[in-house]
Amino acid sequence: MRMFQLSIVAVFVAALAGAAGAADYWPLTPGATFEYASSTGSCSVDLQVGSIPDWFYGWICRRTHLYTDWVSDFYSTDANGDVLWGGYAITVGGEYPDFENWMFSPPLVFLDLPLAVGKQWQCETQAMYVYAEHVVATYPATFHFTVTGAETISTPAGDFETLVLEVLGVFTGLQPATMTRSINHVYHLHRNLGPVDEGSYLLTGWTGVVATDEATWGEVKALYAR
């Protein structure tokens, strides 16, 4: 088991081309915070350098806090400047906290930059269920990413021009054999601020992210791809 864990760590270390810093449509600046609100309450997001579990050391942890629950997603960038999604951990609070941790090997290309309306990409991975920092089960998974359009989103923090990203992930082979787990999420992404909504929660404010009109890495990459 220890050798298996070390091989997994090696995969994730190899992906650490530049975990922290700027990324088009998905901020990766440690210390940045975002606040969201709806008619029923509020939620907050903060970015920090990951340290637990070991294979996410140095990745950027995007923590979403809603009531007593936490969702921690782990992101990095690769040598091409694309945003990678390494996995996530869910902590359901209360008197008896519950945990759900998943890791993707290889990490998913979450944003294949530069983004444009109509762009699509697909990733095949192994979704590993992790408990007590040990991989206890592995399932094949396929994720489809589609930039379905552009939309202006009105929030308490202002009106934002966004690209609409739809993410559909399907896990197969779960028990019982007929069970299929899926992830289906729609993001409204602003070029500098990332998602301006979290489900029904709309952006109310942020810190640590400075808007800029300078050329972004995605635009530079597009020039070299011509």
Task: Explain the overall architecture.
The chain has 226 residues and is mainly beta. The protein has a single domain (2-225), classed as YmcC-like fold, CATH 2.40.360. The protein is built from 2 helices and 13 strands, in the order αβββββββββββββα. It has helices spanning 2-14, 217-225; strands at residues 33-38, 41-49, 60-66, 69-77, 83-92, 98-111, 120-131, 134-155, 158-174, 179-190, 194-195, 197-198, 201-207. The protein has a 13-stranded antiparallel beta sheet with strand order 11-10-9-8-7-6-5-4-3-2-1-13-12, covered by helices on one side. It is globular, with a radius of gyration of 17 Å. Mean pLDDT is 81; it is low at 1-18 and 212-224.
- CA radius of gyration is 17 Å
Overall pLDDT score: 81
Q: Work out the helix count.
A: 2
Tally of strands: 13
The SS-based structural class is mainly beta
Our count of domains comes out at 1
Q: How much helix is in the residues? A: under 10%
Give the CATH class.
Answer: Mainly Beta
Distance between the termini: 45 Å
What is the CATH third-level topology name?
Answer: YmcC-like fold
User: In what order do the strands lie side by side in the largest sheet?
Assistant: 11-10-9-8-7-6-5-4-3-2-1-13-12
The fraction of residues assigned to DSSP E strands is over 45%
Low-pLDDT segments, ≥5 res? 1-18, 212-224
Order of helices and strands: HEEEEEEEEEEEEEH
